[in-house]
What we know:
About 50% of the residues lie in helices and about 15% in strands. By secondary structure, the chain is of the alpha/beta class. Among the domains are: about 60-310, no CATH class; about 315-410, Elongation Factor Tu (Ef-tu), domain 3 (Beta Barrel). β11 (about 425-430), α16 and β12 form a beta-alpha-beta unit.
Amino acid sequence: MKNIEWRxxxxxxxxxxxxxxxxxxxxxxxxxxxTPPCAIGKIKTKRxxxxxxxxxxxxxxxxxxxxxxxxLLVIAGIFGAIGWLPYSPFALAFSTGALIVIALITNxxxxxxxxxxTNSESAYITALILALIxxxxxxxxxxxxxxxxxTAILAMASKYILAIRKKHLFNPAAFAVALTAFTIGQSASWxxxxxxxxxxxxxxGGFLVVRKIQRFDLVLAFLGxxxxxxxxxxxxxxxxxxxxxxxxxxxxxxxxxxxxxxPLTTPPTRDKRIAYGxxxxxxxxxxxxxxxxxxxxxxxxxxxxxxxxxxxxxxKYLVRLKEKSEVGKDIYHFTFELPKPIKFRPGQxxxxxxxxxxxxxxxxxxxxxxASSPTEPDLQLGVKFYEPSSSFKQRxxxxxxxxEIMAGQLAGDFTLPRDKKTKLAFIAGGIGITPxxxxxxxxxxxxxxxPVVLIYAAQTGDGFAYREIFEEAGQKIGLKAVYxxxxxxxxxxxxxxxxxxxxxxxxSGPRSMVVAFEAALHRMGVPRKQIKTDFFPGFA
Length: 540
């Protein structure tokens, strides 16, 4: 279902979707005069968020983080030049350049030694994070250069040496600065978080990153726990003063949006993410200590990484293409041989890394829902291709039997309810059908008869994939499949699912489609707790 574009508008007779209003610049600037002021504010906010989401859809999460870090460093350099920050732009440029060069070289050496695919994006991101948390130095500072070199080397090395089954355990930047603090007595100053001139940019960029990856649950849990922990562990009981100091003079917002949310060290499901945020937030308070060792941001994160690892899938897999076939217009189905079975639940997804030359701005990593069922021996994907395709998708389409790709970071809450009597309604848009292919095949193979209605929408008749799977599910478990070509509205849903108020809805597709349908179901009276959504914006 992942990495798709929805090129068809959905019209709703009972819903004025903010997504459809968004494209009218006049109405954005001039809402109807009869609209109450509070309603106008809500409409403008929704339109602005929709506009932001549209922009975010065009970029991967990793590239967004990369550009955000670059912008922060450029702005810091400008502020340093005009005296708003106490750091010379030349020192900042030297430190950043040195970290990038050493990180790239180290990453290349370890990748070749461990015979794994390199990912220059990751090396750049780690180097830039280090540049934002280590005090900038001049090229005349020999001790400072040694410190920079060691942190870059240790950060890159940790991704390969401290990895269990090809998955690194710790956030690389946090591990590096923590180890240097204990070994050579030099540590990170986290200067990016203690400078008020940068605060607006830290908050704005952090918000974009968190919205892109939809991890507000994790970030809010962390911030809440950190606030409570700091307020009640401070030397003097001054909650407001303590919280003010934490917000204005610590790197809490940069830490929460960039380092805490790193996908490879984050638990795979919502409840575990919240627990991870609470645990790390409690340890973030500077007054927390274990004997003579007081908490620092890097130590809090490392402890959180261990906590996360205990509840996360532990492996990455180098899988080999077995076969590929076209199952719909520009829709290809890929079957990969696994080195060993993978335990997953239908509806979950994985991160896929495909090394290739001339990688474009969208990078060499993607998230795709697993199209196969746990009852099948191979790992399968369904992918929609558009023109012009990204370099990743071009290389993916060119794969031949025997070619390999890396898969890992199994995650996702878009899974079947454990209560088998729960009435279900699946609504899919385009290649958003893949999690339902996995679910239907799983239920068929296990002979689980659940009350399921599937509404599958596509632009044209040749855009429907996996019909045979749903026909089989219809015969074996009574699944009702409805294929909708073109327009789809709430009246159609109500007609096909007259008992919609009794069902749990699963919505899968592009963000615009999912958001619009979720709003429509609310208008139809379906409670929020009965709606589960699954989407990956744009090329994430």
